[in-house]
């Protein structure tokens, strides 16, 4: 989605509004108009991501994501595959329905995201659901301990009391 037309329209509105002011007001508006592009792109992308999250929450079998490639966001719609007929894997405990939901921005290498997308499609769930399950499962496993290094009596790892 090319955001240039929206950024240009905002610049034009800012300059038109400043045209009624003094020369200094017009100069200030011109400087602002020339430097606001990154902030506008970020704000519009954040609004698109929030809208995509709302649409995804309203649909059971479809995930809507906003992906930024270069300077412009792209909307990606993924339909879940029908559930497999084989034995189901034990799912991680889902969060309580009344629990607040936190949003995070996760940056992954494209190859890792593609593998996660494929795994989610294979499981018949959205990428978000798959990631939530992966994090929950990861938190259920005991943390790995580092191998002991060097001489002496130094210990590393996790302990529970």
Beta-strand fraction estimate: 5-15%
Largest sheet: 2 strands, antiparallel
Poorly predicted regions are none
Domains, number: 2
Give the number of helices.
5
The ordered string of helix (H) and strand (E) elements is: HHHEEHH
Strand order of the largest sheet: 1-2
Radius of gyration from CA coordinates: 24 Å
Structural class: mainly alpha
Q: What is the residue-mean pLDDT, rounded to a whole number?
A: 77
N→C terminal distance: 54 Å
Q: Total number of β-strand segments?
A: 2
**Shape, per Cα inertia axes:** elongated
The helical percent reads 40-55%
Topology (elements, then pairings):
Layout: H1 4-18, H2 23-35, H3 37-58, E1 62-69, E2 72-79, H4 110-123, H5 127-140
Antiparallel strand pairs: 1-2
Helix pairs in contact: 1-2, 4-5
Describe this structure in words.
The protein is mainly alpha-helical. It folds into two domains: 1-79; 81-143. Helix content is 48%, strand content 10%. The protein contains five helices and two strands. The protein has helices spanning 4-18, 23-35, 37-58, 110-123, 127-140, and strands at residues 62-69, 72-79. It has a two-stranded antiparallel ribbon with strand order 1-2. Helix 1 (4-18) packs antiparallel against helix 2 (23-35) and helix 4 (110-123) packs across helix 5. The longest helix has 22 residues, at 37-58. The termini are far apart.
């Amino acid at each position: 989605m090319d955001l240039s037309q929206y950024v240009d329209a905002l610049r034009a509105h800012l300059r038109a509004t400043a045209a009624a002011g003094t020369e200094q007001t017009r100069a200030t508006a011109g400087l602002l108009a020339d430097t606001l592009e990154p902030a506008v792109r970020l704000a519009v992308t954040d609004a698109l991501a929030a809208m995509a999250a709302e649409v995804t929450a309203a649909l059971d079998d479809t995930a809507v994501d906003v992906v930024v490639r270069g300077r412009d966001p792209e909307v990606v719609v993924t339909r879940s595959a029908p559930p497999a007929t084989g034995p189901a894997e034990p799912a991680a405990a889902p969060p309580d329905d009344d629990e607040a939901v936190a949003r995070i921005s996760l940056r992954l290498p494209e190859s890792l995201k593609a593998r996660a997308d494929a795994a989610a499609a294979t499981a018949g769930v959205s990428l978000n659901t798959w990631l939530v399950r992966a994090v929950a499962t990861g938190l259920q496993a005991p943390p790995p301990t580092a191998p002991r290094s060097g001489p002496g009596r130094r210990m590393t790892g996790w302990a529970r009391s």
